[in-house]
Amino acid sequence: MPETKPLGRLRLGVNIDHVATVRNARGGPWPDPVRAARMAEAAGADGITAHLREDRRHITDADIDALSREIRLPLNLEMAATAEMQAIALRHRPHAVCLVPERRQERTTEGGLEVAREENRLAHFIAPLRDAGIRVSIFIAADQRQIEAAHRIGAPVIELHTGAYCEHDIAGDIAARDAECARLGEMAAFASELGLEVHAGHGLTFENVKPIAAFPEVMELNIGHFLIGEAIFSGLDSAIRRMRALMDEARRAAFGEGAA
Ligand code: PXP
After folding, report:
1. 25 CA to centre of ligand 1 in angstroms
2. pLDDT tens-digit profile of 132-189?
3. Distance (Å, rounded) from C-alpha 117 to C-alpha 168?
4. Shortest-distance Cα residue to atom 6 of ligand 1
5. I need a labelling partner for 215 at 20 to 30 A (CA). Which of 83, 87, 133, 199 fits?
6. Is the CB of 225 inside a 6 Å radius of any atom of ligand 1?
7. Are 205 and 247 in contact (CB under 8 A)?
8. How do the domains of the chain map onto residue ranges?
9. Of 159, 218, 141, which is closest to residue 185 (Cα–Cα)?
10. CATH for 11-252?
11. Can you give the pTM of this predicted structure?
């Protein structure tokens, strides 16, 4: 068994955005994201993640109100670094805020935040959030420059974008997938050495989660789209439990019994 030990228990944050996507397809109240959040809690999730996009294409302001009021799990609010979103975060004071880049035309959050390009603005942006006791995380690519910039602006947490790793896997480009996986592992270790807490997410599935779950520095995975899709076939409870079990298996395989 390797000497390395994980820095802590790997948490699972369940992203419920796409429950709202299905609801919004009809404009009525069903399916209810709050009900999904409660079910996620019962299935062993450690947190709920929701992305309030500027165009409100899935999660709405009313959803954030309801989630803040009604769920017990810590809420991780994903949002763009805009004045409007900052005001919403300061009003609700979620457990965590994850800053993500947003482009109107994109289908999902396609890349990480360019922290290095707007360090000054972001440092000022996160200061009031941190002062309000909100844990600020920055969603970035596995890129040393971005990690160093996230550290310099005073963010306590980074979330590594696993989208490229997952896309190479879908495309069957094993060499590119493995290279990106190795980069994610190296950058998780690099960030952790700087004192940053490391999370990861985007595109994770039953098939590709284990190598990411096995990085000892990764403390949290945020997973949504696949789980909500899988819920169509096996139910949300079962999908979350299976993901949790795979994460635990990966931890045990890497670090021995007791590591999960
Ligand atoms: N983490 C962040 C920062 C995200 O923006 C998203 C997508 O909203 C996820 C994790 C979850 O990605 P997926 O829905 O592909 O599991």
Report:
1. 20
2. 999 999 999 999 999 999 999 999 999 999 999 999 999 999 999 999 999 999 999 9
3. 27
4. 202
5. 133
6. yes
7. no
8. 11-252
9. 218
10. 3.20.20.70
11. 0.96
